[in-house]
Description:
The protein has helices spanning 12-18, 21-37, 45-51. By secondary structure, the protein is an all-alpha fold. The protein has one domain. The longest helix is centred in the middle third of the chain and has 17 residues, at 21-37. The protein is extended.
Amino acid sequence: MISLDRPIAFGESQKKELLDEKELHYQKLWIEYFDHTNIKERKNDKLHVQHVPKRYWKYLTEKKML
């Protein structure tokens, strides 16, 4: 059994308070890696949606702007 001191439902500002500084650093690194390895000329949205449905995009670090 786990009890949390903080509420489960929280907004974007509270998420940043709960995350460790290292986590934010790794998220920024991942976004930068994704941007540099993504080739715009070879973009295939249909295949991308097959692998990762749009309903999950809100959870992906590379789809968010920090």
